[in-house]
Design brief:
alpha/beta; 5-stranded mixed beta sheet; 27 helices; 10 strands; about 10% strand; globular
Length: about 575
């Protein structure tokens, strides 16, 4: 169990929580990541692609900071859209939800543009707003009200009217001129708004129009699941650059080792075989490696090396699967796809365990080749969700003749280690893990058809779990249906944001029992009862024993939990 405390700062693995100085000094820019950095500062539209934790935010923030410090670099605007799901309830409550979202995106870019210029000169940051139709404070308050779901005011309508693609492009150009830069890059982080496809399509319309000869948008997206809409063609508009580092790349271990040495003091003292085992178990995700390394350093003296290593890798596998399962809570219509996805993932691991246990097999097997013709839209969506969660990685499709196209799928290496799917014998331990994964790889994947990985009953029952009509309870016909075919009323989906707000305050991790009881005394029993307050900080300080420091810590933990839940 994690000790409950309000004041445990600890090591921070998330790039969005690091200081600028940590980003600047602790970033590895070589080989694979050097290509990502060049793509981010170059001209033209770029999509950087990878699952959560693979380094997209880190590389975007590094690009922004490095551009700020180099006079010949472009003017860099960094903006995150990680709070997009706070606007999800608007889709069912406001007829102008898309308009509000459009203005919210432009408002965030405007605020980020001013912040980037202020980092060059505070004087320039204030000068930027002189000719803008509305003030910085009005734009900021508009963003806050939209994210809280409070009614918009007349001032907000003025802000909405003032914000357009053209005014934002003019603002970016004015800022670049004040900063004495010839062109600009706009780093759009957390752009994979996959849980609100209506917003996602609108977002990439904005990206498409924002692009200009002197303005280069860069967006971070998830592999496989980001839908760009009918007017945005990813391959035509720009180029895609993968951030996700493959465990089969020649310098994989070197890059991960460098990341550990820069980000985690004392990592050199970890036994080499243990460190390499954790690098492989991280499956190309630096955040995962850093988390496991820190846990090893905390526990290494408490029990045997092998026991600690095995437990860390099992915990990491279980956490990744639990995170994938949480999609069913965030978006209940995906419940069936998530449940079947867990079964599919376990089958992939079983297939590789059997293949690697075969003494006649030459080289370790890390891939399963699945007949591409066996995938339909639902099984394809299921696979894409697994890719987004970082549980599987899909390599380039291969063809062995007509009707013999294979989709090459690699399940999470951490799961292969935890389930003993990489060994031929009964052995284990760090050295055997490193020898197995660092040795020869099989040239061809294990071939299967999808019906051998998922039983026929599960395949036939695969569906979107759609709620019935809220008025007459008639089941829906499909996931695109907007109006009930029986009573004609508009159909509403449950809101992920609403479900998050209804969770009890006890769901917040590392919140002490004393603080929870103090909040309940103030009738603050759910996350929503705190988040939606006009001034939550002041209200918290009215609780028994809660002063300014504790209230700020509580708010920080609550906001971090909400952002994590809605990401």
């Amino acid at each position: 169990m994690t000790k409950q405390t309000d004041d445990d700062d600890g090591f921070e693995e998330r790039a969005d929580q690091l200081t600028d100085e940590q980003i600047r000094t602790d970033t590895i820019v070589q080989d694979h990541f050097d290509e990502v950095n060049r793509a981010l500062v170059s001209k033209g539209l770029t999509l950087i692609v990878g699952p959560r934790g693979c380094g997209k935010t880190h590389m975007m923030r590094f690009a922004a900071i490095s551009c700020r410090q180099k006079a010949s670099a472009p003017f860099a605007v960094y903006v995150s859209f990680n709070r997009y799901l706070r606007l999800e309830p608007l889709l069912s409550s406001r007829s102008d939800a898309i308009t509000l979202f459009h203005s919210w995106v432009l408002a965030l870019i405007a605020l980020a543009c001013a912040e980037a210029l202020a980092a060059v000169s505070e004087k320039f940051g204030k000068k930027l707003w002189i000719t803008f139709p509305v003030s910085h404070d009005e734009v900021r308050k508009f963003v806050e009200r939209v994210e809280r779901g409070t009614p918009t005011s007349d001032v907000d309508q003025t802000v909405i009217a003032a914000l357009s693609i053209q005014t934002i492009k003019d603002l970016i150009r004015d800022a670049a001129e004040l900063a004495d830069r010839r062109r600009s890059i706009v780093l759009l982080d957390d752009a994979a708004l996959t849980l609100t496809p209506e917003y996602l399509i609108e977002f990439f319309d904005i990206v498409r129009v924002l692009k200009a000869s002197d303005i280069s948008p860069k967006a971070s997206v998830y592999p496989g699941t980001t839908e760009y809409g009918p007017r945005f063609h990813a391959d035509h508009e720009g180029r895609s650059v993968p951030v996700w580092l493959s465990v089969t790349e020649p310098r994989y271990l070197d890059v991960m080792r460098d990341i550990g040495q820069r980000r985690l003091a004392g990592s050199d003292a970890v036994p080499e075989a243990v460190a390499k085992s954790l690098m492989y178990a991280a499956f190309g995700v630096p955040r995962a490696y850093l988390t496991m390394m820190r846990a090893w350093m905390d526990k290494a003296d408490t029990t045997s090396e092998q026991a600690v290593l095995n437990q860390l890798i099992r915990d990491h596998r279980d956490a990744r699967i639990s995170e994938f399962k949480s999609l069913a809570l965030k978006l209940p219509k995906l419940s069936s796809l998530v449940t079947t996805g867990v079964t599919f993932f376990a089958s992939l691991v079983d297939v590789l365990r059997d293949a690697n246990a075969d003494s006649t097999t030459e080289g370790i097997q890390l891939q399963v080749g699945i007949n591409a013709d066996g995938f339909d839209p639902l099984t394809n969506r299921m696979l894409n969700l697994l890719i987004e969660a970082g549980l599987v990685r899909e390599e380039a499709e291969v063809s062995h003749g007509p009707d013999r196209r294979l989709r090459r799928i690699s399940p999470h290496v951490g799961a292969l280690i935890a389930d003993r799917a990489i060994f031929k014998g009964r052995g284990g331990g760090a050295r055997l893990i490193v020898d197995a994964l660092g040795g020869k790889k099989s040239k061809h994947p294990v071939r299967r058809v999808i019906s051998r990985l998922i039983d026929q009953g599960s395949l036939e029952s695969l569906r979107y779990d759609l709620p019935p009509c809220q008025h007459c309870q008639t089941p829906r016909l499909n996931d695109t249906q907007r109006f009930c075919h029986a009573c004609g009323k508009k159909l509403l989906d449950g809101s992920t944001f609403t479900r998050c707000m209804a969770l009890p305050i006890s769901e917040i991790p590392n919140l002490s029992q004393f603080t929870q009881e103090a909040l309940r005394e103030r009738k603050i029993e759910t996350i929503g009862s705190l988040v939606t307050m006009q001034d939550p900080g002041s209200e918290l300080r009215k609780a028994r024993g809660v002063g300014p420091h504790r209230s700020s810590r509580v708010l920080e933990r609550v906001n971090d939990f909400v952002d994590e839940f809605l990401s």
